[in-house]
Amino acid sequence: MTDLNRRRLLAGGAIIGTGGLLAACTGNTPKENAGGAVDAARGDNAKAGKHVTIGFSAPQADHGWVAAISKNAAAEAKQYSDVTFQPVEATNDVTKQISSIQTLIDKKVDALVVLPFDGKALTAVARKAMDAGIPVVNLDRVFDTPLGYRTWIGGDNYGMGQSAGEYVGKRLKDAGVAKPVIGEVAGIDNLALTQDRSRGFKEALAKYGYRVSIRQSAQFTVESGQQVMSNILQARPKLDAVWNHDDDQGVGVLAAVTQAHRSEFFMVGGAGSANAMRLIKADKSVLKCTVTYPPTMAASAVSLARLIAQGRGMSDLTEREVPAYMVLASATVTKDNVDRYLPLGFES
């Protein structure tokens, strides 16, 4: 996600979960706003409207975060009596995902929610849906062109790195550490999301006069996290802080730390898994914080698709249309606020 798109609308923090902004209880009675115009478009978004069918497609649940995406979408759809939810088989095969989306287009669903396995590869079929009059809510992995979606909603990768860097920088500065040794366990390096996360981390640390001392990339898996962290621990006999980009691979990262009997540093996780939050709450490991990349975005995507298909806007906004871009804020979760975020965590 580019910085330009990231800053177009930082509205996601207000719609995390199944309620919030999308179902705000704004009265249905027309009223005058500050400018004197009658506001008749707002209303209670949770109130039933015309019945709509929402198609859903996502990759195979081979990762805790992706599994939570599908669960959140299905759970949200069940909240509405005016929605028929039509998911297709989850797959990491691009050709199969394209074919399944084409099936939904042929069925003339009222809206589509799509988390593409590969945004570039699925752009053409998304455009076919849009050209057929079916609005597409593009979830997280962005299509190549805005012509492929009516609305994009996703996480803030740069913001994740920024939040992690702010936490690490402030904690070390408050402790009076002058030249800290800071490690970074990144994700897949050729992905733009990994590059954005690393850039946010680097730039936030720079505010405190710090920099990353050792950085290695993993593959978003437990096995790769364990191997990479083992390498870092062997290379650096002393660390002050570590940021791991992903809580799923963090299971392996923490296993390596335990095996090496190291505890002189603190660690920040990424994405906001429930197991990571439980460790933070217990406060008995090096993991002291995680920065969120909420899979609840899938629930919000279904809610947005419903409103778009019904021709409604968001009840707490003056505008009559659902926004075109929504970037979810990355929250910093510590033992002080973990109880607030734990119900939204996914299982790694």
From TrEMBL:
Name-wise, this protein is Sugar ABC transporter substrate-binding protein
Keyword annotations of the record: Signal
Where does the Periplasmic binding protein domain start and stop, copy by copy?
Answer: 54-312
Protein localization = Cell envelope
Assign the protein's first listed, main location to one coarse class. Answer: other
Q: Name one GO cellular component term.
A: cell envelope
The record's similarity note reads: Belongs to the bacterial solute-binding protein 2 family.
A GO MF term: carbohydrate binding
